[in-house]
């Protein structure tokens, strides 16, 4: 296939970023110091103009000298103005596909596409910053075509050369993935309103106003006017109440608008092969992840969400996400717990949240209470040396005692909340003191399992178990103080995974090779 360049909109996007990043320097030199003839100001202006000119030229040349070409099994990228760099990224390394449509690109009907790999550093992703939606679809189709060819090639063939149905079932490949998407969740107005309050978005109005006040104060003397305004407010109770009410309404409206811009067009859908998550109104973000690459599910319940019966389910996947997009793998963070559990089952039939989990033995509580309270002890030492003396705050011995009480209360609640289940190919851990986190994964997704015992655990017949799953960074999950019999069951559960063992080891070796960048 022929080499192509990014859409010229890439130049406009880079210029927009350049203007945004240099706006503060421009305002300082050309607005705040507009009447200054000082030598360093004049020199700074010429240096600024030269830097902008060089940066603009670099943006144009960089766009012109960057090309890419799609091969049957890889994508090749050539970049660099003077020193040329040639990258060849095999499609087999691509784990997730992300799309972003910033407001600037939306004006021109463009999008950005990122192919995420499991490598580290600058090779972690392949970015197409500005391309048409048709071109993005072409790249994704090339990736899908490669995967279908691999799937077809990996199918067992009978002696007559046809695909054997029984062997096909044993291989677990099944038919080629379909492209019919099923929409599992889209938020209604009540969901957006609930999210705006539960995310406390309205509080964000305070720093916005503070920043606005600080910027305006650089041009106008607002301090003296603010003093007069405060005197006016405090002089009339009715005016003060009305002002506070108006501010509350403005904050709520701001929170609702801010939440709607982030979650208003939220959608979770799937087909036979992938899970799709889309969000954003002005700036649209979307994630496409293969179900095969989902390593585990994490369901998190903060204290406030537990009180309201809400939970957040998150996909633990192979590959990484761009900075600021780590939370896009979350399945809408304001779902009811039961709906979150159902959604996991709908998206991933092979992974389900188990009921009727086992509790820890009473010996586990004894072990937890006997462990040395490092945090409380260090906090006590800090308080004793610092000796804070604040009004309405108790003396440091009282604070230290409260810290110890809180530490041991948290250990008790953690003991009460800790559960485990080992059934068939699934293992599930649940733990947490005030908050609660549930982790569930399949045996073939675990690349390493660990069982350990400390001296104290040996005395009381309990042990610690842990799992390691492919992710970036590698996801390690640990559960302390299981009964020894459960730890032995966990060890057998992992080592007796007969038909899964070879496949998992091959995937683990492939993952190590991928991370090493070879």
Automatic annotation (TrEMBL):
Keywords: Membrane, Transmembrane, Transmembrane helix. Signal peptide: none annotated. The chain crosses the membrane at residues 12-32, 38-61, 197-216, 228-257, 369-387, 393-413. InterPro entries: UCP026631, YdbS-like_PH. It comes from the Bacteria. Coiled coil: none annotated. Residues 63-142, 266-322, 415-494 form the YdbS-like PH domain. The keyword Transmembrane helix applies. Pfam families: bPH_2. The keyword Endoplasmic reticulum does not apply. This is YdbS-like PH domain-containing protein. It comes from Bhargavaea beijingensis.
